[in-house]
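Lab notebook, entry 574. We have the chain sequence and a SMILES string for 2-acetamido-2-deoxy-beta-D-glucopyranose, and the next step in the workflow is to get a structural model of the bound complex before anyone spends time on docking refinements. Request logged below.

Task: model protein plus 2-acetamido-2-deoxy-beta-D-glucopyranose, output structure tokens.
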Amino acid sequence: MKFSSVLLFAPLAAAIWPLPSSYSSGDGVLWIGPNVDVTYNPPSTNHSADYASNSSSGAAWSQIIVQKAIHRTYETLFTQNFVPWKFHPRNEDFEPPTGNQTFISSIVLEQTAVDPENVLRPLAGDVDESYDLSLTSAGTAKITAKTSIGLVRGMTTFAQLFFQHSSGGVYTTLAPVTISDSPKFPHRGLNMDVSRNYFPVFEIKKMIDSMAFTKFNRLHLHITDAQSWPLEIPALPELSAKGKYCPGCVYTSEDVSDIQLYGALQGIEVYLEIDMPGHTSSIHFSHPELVAAFNVQPDWDTYAAEPPSGTLKLNDSAVDDFLDTLLGDLLPRLAPYAAYFHTGGDEVNQNAYLLDETVQSNDTDVLQPLIQDFVDANHARVRAAGLTPVVWEEMLLFWNVTMGDDVVVQTWQSNEAVVDTVKRGHKVLVGNYNFWYLDCGKGQWLDFNPGDSSAQYWPYADYCSPRKSWRLMYSLDPLDGVPANATDLVLGGECHIWAEQTDPVNIDTMVWPRACAAAEVLWSGPKDAEGQNRSQVEASPRLSEMRERLVARGVGAEPIQMPFCTMNGTQCAL
Ligand SMILES: *[C@@H]1O[C@H](CO)[C@@H](O)[C@H](O)[C@H]1NC(C)=O
Ligand SMILES: *[C@@H]1O[C@H](CO)[C@@H](O)[C@H](O)[C@H]1NC(C)=O
Ligand SMILES: *[C@@H]1O[C@H](CO)[C@@H](O)[C@H](O)[C@H]1NC(C)=O
Ligand SMILES: *[C@@H]1O[C@H](CO)[C@@H](O)[C@H](O)[C@H]1NC(C)=O
Ligand SMILES: *[C@@H]1O[C@H](CO)[C@@H](O)[C@H](O)[C@H]1NC(C)=O
Ligand SMILES: *[C@@H]1O[C@H](CO)[C@@H](O)[C@H](O)[C@H]1NC(C)=O
Ligand SMILES: *[C@@H]1O[C@H](CO)[C@@H](O)[C@H](O)[C@H]1NC(C)=O
Ligand SMILES: *[C@@H]1O[C@H](CO)[C@@H](O)[C@H](O)[C@H]1NC(C)=O
Ligand SMILES: *[C@@H]1O[C@H](CO)[C@@H](O)[C@H](O)[C@H]1NC(C)=O
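Result returned:
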């Protein structure tokens, strides 16, 4: 209480998002210029030659990871910064005088251990992301971390200490600074649907940049669905040739590797999902023989959650052969830059199998063994490629599929699903749609059948209305109801941007800055050092500031308040 009331009257909240584990700062002014001396001290090793030459060692990548992070830090500080007038009373001269400047002389980046070999494709927790940061009043900065990715996280924090001066130059008012920081959860992700609408490669990279800036570390690409198949599979070129939305609306093998490496070098693992056996209607465009119940009209909703209906046949050796070819081609190409592969499994519609001539039943007793076989076969393929399977919660919680305890279960329907999953001994990702679905609240996109009265659908809400505000997102506790002896099974979670009503025009606004709320819950944890819920009073101006930082980086993040509210303390408290 006391802590937050101090902050209420400090016009500029501590800038950093997500909040570090431990953080102290002063009120000294320091300037920073592009000629600041930056040195990287890699860990001492008896294999130092690895750093220059051996591309299969983690050590060789460390140099590249850190060099790129230094470059991004420069860009953030000197070309993508902002003047923080929104956080000071109007007409106040809030900027430090430009005479007698003390400049930061050096930034030392010290890595104390060799990066693990799988630094570009870690399982949750394999890469230590912790770091210590100090900035003295005299102007020397040091970031220490066990890994290159820890240094990346530390540099991200460092960049958030600084502001643009309106007459040129870049400064902090927070010296001296001491930070010790590490993430609460090892899997901090965004699930991005790039099938229902197509997003060019550069949009996905832009998303990765913003995610790294808020210390996310997983981008889950939901890359195929019922509506389009943008993923090129060289062994099955007809899939994207016929299933893509438009010429060029594809992700080539090179695109996928390029996106993955781009993410990995920022400590963001990009992993793919092929959702199946439902959500596969787009396979029909090239392989009608493999898909049952395709695009039933008008009562598609008997057979699927969304048009066009359709599912892979469940008892057909041709489907099995097809998946052998598909995954045999795809998975080895993903493995250099990912530890996971998501085999989907949500919203399997029983009735679709009434129209599947290999099954002709919607009885769960008939379907369950077929689903079990389907998952077993896919997971064997995933493991054979050296990857770890991820599935949607229904496979475990509805279909009772028996799966290896390596399998990560992604929950979405409730907090209880998290508890039920850990009780069955599985690792779990949170993402309750009542909190972390970024697509909700835009209203109904489904049209009406001619002759139906549209009035019956008034006021035209969508399935998960209302919109989830950052405050609601911030209130999700990933460990809600989880027994103390099972908290380690909660790897973290993902927020979700489904793309029925999102395309490159509005993606920034749909995701940012609200995803920051999930990023902070996952990095800092939902509770403060005293075990209380984190204060939204403290978070609100800090998120407004983070939004300004995103905008300065060219991200169309929406405002969460008016400047009137952020300019002078508590004027907008209810
Ligand atoms: C290198 O190896 C030698 C001999 O095994 C050992 O004494 C030394 O401590 C090692 N140095 C480092 C930096 O690990
Ligand atoms: C490269 O590094 C890896 C992992 O550190 C090591 O196993 C391998 O022997 C090294 N290769 C060469 C040619 O030095
Ligand atoms: C800021 O708020 C305080 C407390 O409400 C008030 O006394 C002061 O006049 C305000 N200053 C400005 C510039 O609005
Ligand atoms: C210049 O700044 C230094 C360090 O902040 C301070 O000690 C010194 O008094 C200042 N000198 C003048 C002339 O303001
Ligand atoms: C699956 O197909 C085989 C023939 O290929 C058939 O014998 C079997 O009854 C089918 N299973 C179900 C559950 O329909
Ligand atoms: C299964 O299909 C029958 C019609 O064949 C239908 O009455 C029943 O509701 C369906 N069961 C489910 C679970 O949808
Ligand atoms: C899964 O198990 C539960 C509890 O035993 C049972 O009620 C449910 O019917 C099973 N689901 C299926 C699809 O077999
Ligand atoms: C803390 O947050 C949870 C929701 O995550 C809520 O149920 C609870 O009431 C909050 N506790 C307090 C003291 O506000
Ligand atoms: C946690 O404790 C409960 C009750 O003692 C036990 O049934 C359960 O297996 C334990 N779970 C784990 C993940 O250890």
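Notes for the group: The first strand starts at residue 22 and ends at 32. Worth checking against the assay data. Residues 44-46 surround 2-acetamido-2-deoxy-beta-D-glucopyranose (ligand 1) (CB under 6 Å).
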